[in-house]
Write a structure and sequence with these properties.
The protein is mostly beta strands. It has no helices and ten strands. The strands form five sheets. It has a two-stranded antiparallel sheet. Strands 3-4 form a two-stranded antiparallel ribbon. A two-stranded antiparallel sheet has the order 5-6. A hairpin with a 2-residue loop joins β5 and β6. The two termini are 19 Å apart.
């Protein structure tokens, strides 16, 4: 998508390609663009804040959140961000968010249910940052799409230092990518 035609956070969307962050997820009964995802080690308040879809003790970790019915100790253990009686429970949304369990494409907001993991995929759009769940190598900005310790395929590549070319905030160890050309450490143009 050409520069300047994508939407920032909290704008209604139908696909992740419409969002500068490449993230279009359910917020109550509608889909909205999220902020850029955070790299491993960055601050988070729920799994969708992180490229890895893992948020533990307010920090992005390389563990993908649990699906509805999965074991949990706290809300952030669940893709739904809802843990009740040590099990992840469904949230009231019109479709499944990225990382949530699925039986088929119609279960997912993105319209893509990974045939490998039976989890909702991000769907078509910009390349994915390190630690993001993926289906094939071509999904990733850099590195390969390989199973993590949970057996879930994720983009494998180290985060980038400030001053290096980046595709999104999740590429950067600092959690910030911006400018023209886009460099780690610069303020993002869409994430205001």
């Amino acid at each position: 998508m050409p520069s300047g035609t994508c939407s920032g956070p909290d704008v209604t969307c139908t696909a992740r390609s419409a969002c500068c962050s490449g993230r279009c997820e359910p917020q109550s009964q509608e889909l909205k663009c999220l902020t850029f995802c955070a790299a491993l080690g960055q601050h988070c308040s729920r799994p969708e804040d992180c490229c890895s879809l893992g948020c533990v003790s307010d920090t992005c970790v390389p563990v993908v959140c649990a699906v509805v019915g999965g074991a949990c100790a706290q809300d952030t253990d669940c893709c739904s961000n809802k843990c009740d009686n040590l099990a992840c429970v469904a949230e009231q949304t019109s479709c499944g968010r990225t990382g949530e369990g699925c039986a088929g494409a119609t279960d997912c907001c993105s319209g893509i249910c990974s045939p490998l993991t039976k989890r909702c995929d991000l769907g078509p759009g910009p390349c994915r940052e390190p630690s993001s769940p993926c289906i094939v190598d071509g999904d990733c900005c850099r590195g390969q799409c390989l199973p993590n310790t949970q057996g879930i395929p994720v983009c494998t590549s180290a985060c980038l230092a400030d001053g290096l070319d980046c595709n999104g905030a999740g590429d950067c160890c600092s959690g910030s990518c911006g400018g023209s050309p886009a460099l780690c450490g610069a303020s993002p143009s869409c994430d205001r």
